Amino acid sequence: MTESITIKQLTTMDELHHMQEVEQAVWAMSPNPVHQTYTAMNNGGIILGAFDGQKMIGFLYSFAGFDGERPYLCSHMLGILPAYRKQGLGKKMKREQYSLARQQGYPMITWTYDPLESMNAYLNLHQLRATGAHYKPNYYGTMTDKLNQGLRTDRFQIEWDLTKDEEPTKAEIDTNRLLIRLKQSGEPVSNLAVFDVREDSWFVPIPENFQTIKQENVELARKWRDVTGDVFRELFAAGFIAYDILRDNAQQISYYYFLKKNKS
């Protein structure tokens, strides 16, 4: 990351108009209306911008939420221009969001992400130490942006507890606890026959670059969505959470590490 990149909280209408430009560049879809983001910003929301000099190159948009029992910060969108990705900027922005949310008294931040996007999973679960607490199949319904078009919009809902610090994971991949096996062709095959709810932990592989698979072989991408969806549904229904993700760079595969809630 270049030294010229800074992160700051957005406070003006003009900055929100610039945020719309970044949003359109990232997702190729209509951006959030400024009257909505401005209202959220002035009612407990936290909106951050990342700048290379005077140019906004990323943003993080979150607003106040309440589930009937506790308030929380709902982190809705994190967008970074392609030329600035894979430099640790997303982690830096989430850490700034974490600090500001704690200052404002929020006990938790929640957000959703596509569980087949390994880079997002690694940031959320491994680097930030949040957990995948809920599985939301086809959460947004049909979407037409370039990242989601043509597939179900399955999501994990993240819960990031701001009241405690998580310890790093010490797990190692156990090939005897894989709930998906891979054919030589790379096609995923369900291994749910070995699933035993009495065990404390299980592993689920996902591809390292799901978007590349989608571009090159959409049927294989749909297979990944369907097979992982069946496995995730079983795990969450049995009281497991996505606790971490472990990378196998040599195989271009990442592995979700699922634990029972009372074991995490």
Automatic annotation (TrEMBL):
<dbReference type="InterPro" id="IPR038764">
    <property type="entry name" value="GNAT_N_AcTrfase_prd"/>
</dbReference>
<protein>
    <submittedName>
        <fullName>GNAT family N-acetyltransferase</fullName>
        <ecNumber>2.3.1.-</ecNumber>
    </submittedName>
</protein>
<feature type="domain" description="N-acetyltransferase">
    <location>
        <begin position="5"/>
        <end position="148"/>
    </location>
</feature>
<dbReference type="GO" id="GO:0016746">
    <property type="term" value="F:acyltransferase activity"/>
</dbReference>
<dbReference type="Pfam" id="PF00583">
    <property type="entry name" value="Acetyltransf_1"/>
</dbReference>
<dbReference type="InterPro" id="IPR000182">
    <property type="entry name" value="GNAT_dom"/>
</dbReference>
<keyword id="KW-0012">Acyltransferase</keyword>
<dbReference type="InterPro" id="IPR016181">
    <property type="entry name" value="Acyl_CoA_acyltransferase"/>
</dbReference>
<keyword id="KW-0808">Transferase</keyword>
